[in-house]
Amino acid sequence: MSESGSRNTRRRPDRAALGIAAALAAVAIVIAWSTSQAGGVAGYSPVGPKTFPYIIAGGLFILSILTAIEAMRGHFPEREAQDFPPMLWVLGGLVAQMLTMKTIGFSLSTGLLFAATARAFGKGALWKTFPAGVVFALLVWLMFAKGLQLTLPAGPLERLF
Amino acid sequence: MDTFSLLAQGLLVAMEPSNLLYALIGVTLGTAVGVLPGIGPALTVALLLPVTYKLDPAGSLIMFAGIYYGGMYGGSTTSILLNTPGESASIVTALEGNKMAKSGRAGPALATAAIGSFVAGLIATLGLAFVAPSVVKFALSFGPSEYFALMLLAFMTVSAAFGESTLRGITSLFIGLALGLIGIDQLTGQARLTFGMPNLFDGISVTTLAVALFAIGETFTVVAQRATGEDKVETVRGSVWMSREDWRRSWVPWLRGTAIGFPIGAMPAGGADVSSFLSYSAEKNFSKHPEEFGTGAIEGVAGPEAANNASAAGTLVPLLTLGLPTTATAAIMLAGFQQFGLQPGPLLFATNAPLVWGLIASLLVANFILLVLNLPLIGLWVKLLSIPKPWLYAGILVFATLGTIGADGSTFFLGPVPVSFGLLLLMLFGVLGYGLRRFGYPIAPVVVGLILGPMAEKSLRQALQISQGDPMALFHSWIAILLWVLALLAVVLPLYLRARGKGRMLAQFATDED
Amino acid sequence: MKQFVWASIIAGAMALPAMAEDYKIMAPAAPGGGWDQTARSMQTALQDEKISNSVQVLNVPGAGGTIGHAQFVNQSSGDPSQLIVGGYVMVGAILTNNSPVTLDQVTPIARLTGEYEVIVVPAASDIKDMSGLVEKLKADPGSVSWAGGSAGGTDHITAGLIAKAAGVDPTKVNYIAFSGGGEALAAILGNQVTVGISGYGEFAAQIEAGTLRIIGISSDERVEGIDAPTFKEGGVDVSIQNWRMVAAAPGITDEQKAAILADIEKMAKSESWQKILTEKGWADTYLAGDAFAEQLKADTEATTAILKEIGLVK
Fold first, then answer.
1. Chain C contact probe: residue of B324, B340, B342 with most C CBs at under 10 A
2. Deepest of A70, B300, C133, C185, by most Cβ within 10 A of its Cβ?
3. SUPFAM superfamilies, per this entry (chain C) (predicted)?
4. Residue B413: helix, strand or coil by DSSP?
């Protein structure tokens, strides 16, 4: 989204903010386009299923222009430097959990997320945090799936119980 | 068989030692599950309801009441401490509450939330007992036209009350409105912005969005500051208890929140979220310290928390008198009532009097036990903040994802890989939440847009359809006209005040500079 | 620790085939809804009656059940331990949502319960009976506003069928969709709309209290305990039942199907199930095997026709 760590208070134009303006415009266009593709159903109300989408698309478009103007003037608030590698660990953990949840079950998959998050916050040793996470997730699974009948994906580990 | 003796009788039953024990267990369970980040009251009640099946009717009823109030209350704790609301109604609590916690005032924030919830629960439960029939009459006079005017008022007051930049606040709101379009249009059955994906047909779940933007977005933000920001540990400064000043500033918001929350909770299309939004903007407007809003104003916790709980009791008004479940939690409770042989409806108070009064008495007792249990626990909850961050945030993510998977077991194929669709959305919105924070966009208006947008659209179109296209139908009752006038005032008044040079807080909205 | 995990995985994988005699029921709805309650009641009855050792319920909500249904068809093929709960609403939802997976692709087992649609008016309304409603509808269809559940749902379909039977253009029906029966009920009680249409259960308490008047019910014959003429008696030839069913996976053998049918039959006749039906106020409209399959086919045809006429299905 933006280059990491640059303190760009006075930099004009603010390129990241221009990116936001472009994204808003893109969303507006997608909404308008998708709405124009839908078939209409006649009803008694003059305000149909397409009215609000068009209004919102129009609003987003105007906001995109205003955002672009602010960006050109460099009016966005100052941003703190960011530390991206830890963020990627958390994101990676979420992706790993999402991809594996249905296959290997709640505990193992959530263990991955747990370990990745702990790693992001500076607890390094994955070989320690992963098993810890699996045990924690398994306890949570037992409590909710067995104790409270909440259906959570079961994998090889959960089937033992 | 007058009201008082029935209530007294109910209270006597509820105060039996074994029943008190059940109430305690119910409150503890409700709070314990409700407090988990990402697990809201609806899921809490749904999960814990079966626990009550095994008891005798009186015990089961009272435990159930405890679970309900415990679950409603539990969410505010993690909202305040960890900025991770489990559902839409505690988002507002997180706004000011978490700011208070970050400046070391977690104790007073939790206390005002707990006492506010108690006061609101007490008044609203008594309201349920004594004025339910007239409240329900008022609520029924709200048709689509009135709802549209109410939504308009909510938009006008709420959008002015968030954030420091008007442009970014409105942009956030529009992002929420755009998300609200996704799904099948209820009035015509047409799919909008679903791009042919059946998983999007029911729209974006408010809970998923709220949990993602707050809990996941917050985790990203905190972890990204690890290297630069020195660890901003929220140490507890001063007393964990409320000061005299805190009391003085809290009691009016409690009452005001109750007054807003109870009637709106009683409306068929109201709900706890709308009333907490309205209460927040009311407090901001009436406060003597408007400059503190956004940095941790205690009124901003006291009011919305009271409103939230009062509307929880308000929800019971249409549920008991009409058999109308107006929220997801209420729908689950309706199923719960059936096991007690309680058939909600207009005849309930006549045919089932002892049971109804038993329930109301149970709610009063549960409310009291909630306070007794939670005030001493505040010190313990605050200790949550001293859990080392790696474990704290890993735990938050575990529960946030658990709540999502548990409520939605659908599978979506990403190529050959089966993935959970809920988790996919959770991750995408989490990244969005981080992006918004990074560029100074407020988070709450996104959720507000997602909740209010579809409601406003639906009621406008229903009103126009009933009138066969006549726009004058929007002003057909004095309630509608009054709401329109208030909405207009909400726009005009700040302009007028600013023209007279009053209110630094208001001036702040006008300028784009920070 | 790692070794322990691997050992567990292997052990778990080996334990897998041992669970074949249990059932896994999918409720294609959120916890608390009608299909979820049906699935969980089945769970209770099957376990209490010792028909099955362990029954699990999986919630896959969304799009009128079509998401859960599609997932069921794709993932359970040939697995006799998997069941799905569904209902008439799914017939319409599959059509309006253009779902690629149809009800033909599961193995229907039995219809379990059902509810009839009723039309109500506020007690003070000048509409007294079905002929009064038809008269108004013929004079000016737009002036009769109908409050019911979501567009394309059972309530909407019934309204369309009634208009059609009365000789009124179904596209002219001024149907106002509310979320769930609750909001619709509030609109009727608040005199916002002309008539309300929904399942009997939504209005039962109000009808008993006399705040709403029932002018017709969608059954073939009068229903015991409900003091209302049928639509047919009122001169409108429409009958419809909002049923709930249980179906099995596609691609199972005839023996497997027979075994499931026997289990469900046993459950439906059991004391536990009958007790649940009374408690929940569900009508026992049990219909199994081929008779049900035929009924399903007829319902699908009629629904497709009316949804096309209303304009919801192209």
1. B324
2. B300
3. Periplasmic binding protein-like II
4. strand
